Amino acid sequence: MLMPVFAESILRSGPKGLGMLMAASGLGALGGALALLSRRGVRGLGRWVAISTAAFGVSLIGFSLSRTFWLSALLLVPVGAAIMVEMASSNTLIQAMVPNALRGRVMAVYSMMFMGMAPFGALFAGWLAERIGAPRTVALGGAICIVASAIFSLRLPSLRHEGLRLIVAQETVGGGVT
């Protein structure tokens, strides 16, 4: 949501630069999606969530520090890849663990929370950027992602046990995930 500020005020690249920056992120997202194509099943996806969240944070911090257009565009490629891997992996894990009878409802709540909270996040990011600047706001977001990834990684062993129990329960009921 702060990309227009970066394109116009920080990188001085205007609307054309904004399009190129967004395309770089999209190219990374395509690469992340293609990387997930090779996966079979859900084993190891929790680790992918943790790593991609940390990679997203590191890439965001790098982007926030860059003042060169092409370096910024290059740094947005891993940003797009990491967010795609994180979102797709999280979605897959949630769908694999939820009983068939509740899957639609759970995904509706998940989607509502994800998309419904985005405007509030944008409002907060704009408010914060007005006070501390867009680069610092983006860097802070990246740092929060790194901390969240570390916490998730520490809790992953216990989460993995519970997640496996839920997935096995789904497979024995006939709603299995391969």
Q: Supply the CATH class.
A: Mainly Alpha
* Strand elements, count: 0
The helix-and-strand class reads mainly alpha
User: So how many helices?
Assistant: 6
Please give the radius of gyration in angstroms.
18 Å
Domain unit count: 1
Query: What does the largest sheet look like?
Result: none
The dominant shape is: elongated
Helix content: over 70%
Per CATH, the superfamily is MFS general substrate transporter like domains
Order of helices and strands: HHHHHH
CATH architecture: Up-down Bundle
Task: Tell me, rounded to a whole number, the average pLDDT.
Answer: 91
CATH fold-level assignment: Growth Hormone, Chain: A
Low-pLDDT stretches are: none
Distance between the termini: 37 Å
Q: How much strand?
A: under 5%
Q: Which features characterize this protein?
A:
87% helix; mainly alpha; 0% strand; 178 residues; Growth Hormone, Chain: A
